[in-house]
Design brief:
293 residues; mainly alpha; 14 helices; 68% helix; 0% strand; globular
Length: 293
């Protein structure tokens, strides 16, 4: 059964997903980040919590360059319905390989009263996926992100003038900005047409002026000093940051708290808490949202 934390997360995720349907450019990038950050709350306290979380993140940020489930969503039903069903199907497919774990999954499905689906309903949902989703012009989306998101950083340095603890806040903002820029470059790499590459090169000086190079080195397998290098360099694996869940898999944006905690420990000899990182991220998202509408 869903707890209050699950219900609150579901409401916010559904609302953001509806906004995502009509959004474009940097707004879509930020909404996708916000939804991803709420996924852990959606499945908190549920059976097979970690498996559901990992499956959901893979659906939102597919590792195999397929379309994100968000890009396929049309708003006709609550997004959580499609997400939970897709998560359940993904786990079911994986667990079919083991009859023992399949019994565990069946018990989980039986106890979920809110979204219990038959095999036929799952088949119908897959048919819906192929029929209702429109193709996304990734080239134009990436260029839109670059032309809208990057100019915000020119105002970013003055955002802290006269503010208390501005140096600390600015330090976190630069880290979150670096996270998003690496994610944007990697999305662009999937559609690296001459048009996209030209636009990236035009913005390269602005990008690297505001990126935290140490943090980029912290999350990327190799040092990257050009847009092309960032787009082609893989993120480090979870185990490097002490993330025990799926240690051999690579980190994904939005990064988990351990990525930031290990950065502060290694580079600044400072200990920070999950709560501090979460609050600073909310402040950064609030800053970005001011320019999205």
């Amino acid at each position: 059964m869903m707890n209050d934390r699950n219900k609150s997360a579901e409401e916010r995720i559904n609302a953001w997903a509806l906004e995502y349907v009509k959004a474009s450019g940097v707004q879509k990038v930020n909404l996708k980040m916000q939804i991803s950050e709420k996924i852990s709350d959606l499945f908190s306290g549920q059976q097979k919590e970690e498996e559901q979380y990992e499956a959901a993140i893979d659906l939102i940020y597919p590792p195999d360059e397929k379309k994100s489930i968000l890009e396929k969503y049309d708003g006709s039903k609550p997004f959580s319905y499609y997400l939970k069903t897709a998560v359940k199907n993904r786990i079911l497919d994986h667990l079919r390989k083991s009859s023992r774990e399949l019994l565990i999954l069946n018990e989980m499905v039986k106890n979920e009263n809110d979204n219990e689906d038959t095999e036929q309903e799952r088949a119908d949902l897959q048919k819906d996926y192929s029929n209702m989703y429109e193709k996304v012009d990734h080239t134009q989306e990436i260029i839109s992100i670059l032309t809208v998101f990057l100019p915000l950083i020119s105002q970013y340095d003055t955002h802290f003038n006269g503010r208390k603890n501005n140096r600390s806040a600015q330090r976190y903002y630069q880290l979150f900005y670096t996270e998003r820029i690496t994610a944007i470059c990697k999305e662009a790499s999937a559609v690296m047409t001459p048009q996209v590459y030209h636009e990236l090169k035009n913005q390269e000086m602005m990008i690297f002026k505001s990126v935290n190079i140490d943090f980029a080195d912290h999350v990327l397998e190799e040092k990257s000093r050009t847009i092309k290098e960032i787009s082609e360099t893989k993120y480090k694996k979870n185990e490097y940051f002490g993330i025990q869940q799926s240690p051999k898999e690579r980190i994904k944006a939005p990064f988990k708290a351990n990525v930031y905690k290990t950065y502060f420990e290694y580079f600044e000899n400072v200990t920070v808490t999950d709560a501090t990182i979460s609050q600073r991220r909310k402040d950064f998202d609030s800053y970005i949202r001011k320019f999205m509408h």
